[in-house]
Design brief:
single chain, globular
């Protein structure tokens, strides 16, 4: 990636499924390029005053973590990556008495985390351009890794597919139909962008959406179809430094760190202009994003806040403040989970 510090780009692909959990899925098939208007529907004022929710004081699941970043949750557990310690950790979503367990302890710089019913996946930025990706079988507690090339930044999983993106340039997207060490960068590549990086990835069983750069379009949100690789369809262009993505059945959502906006656009080829759901201060740096049936949840890296906004837009609701560089975010039916990269904590916030 262009930067390995806290300004590095990441996205944990999140999809809200019928079970009410955030999970990660994929899909890829040929599509013709259809460039949509890069404008926005600015129905909201340029800055929305947050409302404060009641009784949402975060509880600490783990402290003393080393630069925690990517995070994911399943029906029982929360998983996150500790970049500086080379570990991927697990804690019961209800708490683990402050003592999480490592499921990976020998990575160089683990970054993104994703979950399926049977596996946990992660990316490892590695050292000197030698990144890897890995999977952990929940049933057998066995893990394996495979080489990916430099800077694998995002990952998403379904029950039978594993996909990740590589920064670049060239930016690349890879997919494997089986969770196996036989997955490699030659057989798994589904798209390559020689002109720019791919800095975020999210997917379900129909499409994948990525953050990338295209000549004349700036930073864009683009759609790919699976399992066959194809040319991406741009659904939003000229965005303000988009970071993380989330996906439901009708829209793709993202945070724009440069202009403080939380955005969405319809996922169809004739998506129309992106909608601005809310804005925070331009210096707040909205970063991580996750969704449930009603709300979009997001972190603001520099402001140290965790907020939510209705999917249709409106004033954001403040869930937590005073956090130390809140990075990754994940949600389940009852709670919001956040990694504080500078504070070394992982917290749970009741919705």
């Amino acid at each position: 990636m262009g930067s390995k510090g806290r300004s590095a780009r990441i996205a944990l692909g999140t999809v809200f499924g019928a079970a009410g959990l955030v999970a990660c899925f994929v899909s890829f098939a040929p599509l013709e390029v259809r460039l949509q208007d890069g404008g926005t529907n600015d129905a909201l004022p340029p800055s929305d005053v947050p409302k404060e929710a009641h009784d949402t004081t975060p509880s600490i699941l783990a402290s003393g973590q080393a630069d925690p970043s990517g995070i994911a949750v399943d029906t029982t557990s929360v998983y996150w990556a500790n970049r500086a310690a080379g570990t991927v950790m697990r804690c019961a979503s209800t708490g683990c008495e402050g003592t999480p367990s490592p499921i990976v302890s020998d990575a160089a710089s683990p970054y993104a985390v994703a979950v399926s019913v049977s596996h946990v996946g992660w990316t490892d930025l590695g050292t000197q351009g030698g990144g890897t990706a890995g999977i952990f079988n929940k049933g057998t507690d066995a893990g394996e890794q495979f080489g990916t090339g430099p800077s694998p930044n995002s990952m998403a999983m379904s029950n039978d597919r594993l996909c990740w993106s590589q920064d670049g340039p060239p930016g690349e997207v890879f997919c494997c139909s089986q969770f196996s060490a036989l997955c490699d960068t030659q057989s798994a590549r589904v798209w390559k962008n020689d002109a720019g990086a791919v800095t975020a990835l999210v997917m379900d069983d129909q499409n994948a959406f990525v953050v990338t750069s295209l000549a004349g379009r700036g930073k864009v949100i683009a759609s790919l179809s699976v399992p066959a690789p194809g040319t991406p369809t741009v659904v939003a262009s000229n965005q303000g430094d988009p970071h993380q993505l989330a996906l439901d059945q009708t829209h793709v959502y993202w945070t724009n760190a440069a202009d403080g906006a939380v955005m969405r656009v319809a996922r169809t080829p004739d998506a129309g202009a992106p909608e601005k759901l809310c804005t925070v201060g331009a210096d707040d740096q909205p970063w991580g994003i996750a969704i449930d049936r009603e709300f979009v949840y997001f972190t603001a890296l520099q402001a140290g806040t965790v907020m939510k906004v209705a999917k249709g837009g409106g004033a954001p609701v403040l869930l937590a403040k005073g956090q130390a560089a809140p990075w990754g975010i994940a949600v389940d039916e009852t709670s919001v989970y956040v990694t504080n990269s500078a504070g070394g904590t992982v917290v749970r916030i009741l919705k």
